[in-house]
Amino acid sequence: MTAGVSKRARLICVDWGTTNLRAYAIAGDGTVIDQAQSGAGLRSNPADYSDCLATMIGPWLDQESPINILLSGMVGSPTGWQEVPHVVSPAALPQLAAKATLVAQLHDHPVWIVPGVMGTGMSGLPDVMRGEETQFFGARRLCADQYARQPDIWCFPGTHNKWIPSGENIDHFSTTMVGEFFGLIQEHSLLAQSLDQSVSANQPAFLRGLETACKAGGLLHHLFSVRTLQLTGAQEKAQGLEYLSGVIIGHDIDAQLRKPSQNVGIVASSSLAHKYQIALEALGHSSIVIESQAATISGALAINEHLLGASEQPGA
What we know:
- There is one protein chain.
- This protein is α/β, with parallel strands linked by helices.
- The protein has a domain at 9-147: Nucleotidyltransferase, domain 5 (2-Layer Sandwich).
- The chain is 38% helix and 23% strand.
- The chain is built from 9 helices and 14 strands.
- The strands form 3 sheets. A 6-stranded mixed beta sheet has the order 3-2-1-4-7-6, sandwiched between helices. A 5-stranded mixed beta sheet has the order 12-11-10-13-14, sandwiched between helices. It has a 3-stranded mixed beta sheet with strand order 5-8-9.
- A hairpin with a 4-residue loop joins strand 2 and strand 3 (32-38).
- The model is unreliable at 1-5 (pLDDT under 50).
């Protein structure tokens, strides 16, 4: 544990995604005793997942009694440590705990992988998630403590945005490839010639992009305006990135929020959440923010409560 901290961990929560590996030692009252992060996501192709995890959290395992180590994210995918089948929606919190898979023991501490969820998107096409299901249930608990009511819909911005209508369970949800699409356009399209890749945030350009997303013509037409505005001198390259971001995010919000004046729960880091707050307000919606790390930890604690309850049942 961190020097000077006498608390014992009740849970080790691990968010293991495609790019990053994040781990938290959590006390019984929910506070973070210690945390660690590395770039040892699935793309790094860990030679041994157990050794990789032990290297990161080894100092936290010196405890008199075993505690659960709870993993969520892409670590349970076919390309991860061990495939853990999705729970089919509607998915409830007890189902996730019941389907969690024991994959190893580290110094007598059981290592569990939480399953993802498979469901149907707003188009009627199949959809999947891994990691956001833990954050969803955690965000709901935190929202109940911090706000008067639950939002109409939850948004999880990132490489692949998740939109989940509010409710006690995950009934259906939609994935939009916002972050990945932005990166592809930014790096591998003709539009890259009209973008200054080193420029930081430019809110006026972002707002103009949101305005463009509301015009006639559709996303594919609006994307080309990144190029034509720069060629005609109506927009500088230094404004291109934020304008492009506004166009893409604006279209995503418009496609997902089919009713006016909806309240959206944003689960993201503070900087990304702020951008979505600006976009939602500009497009006539309201929002609340739950920090993504806090949502992950809260959800893991909720799942762990069910795991501990099951272990205490007669015959367990």
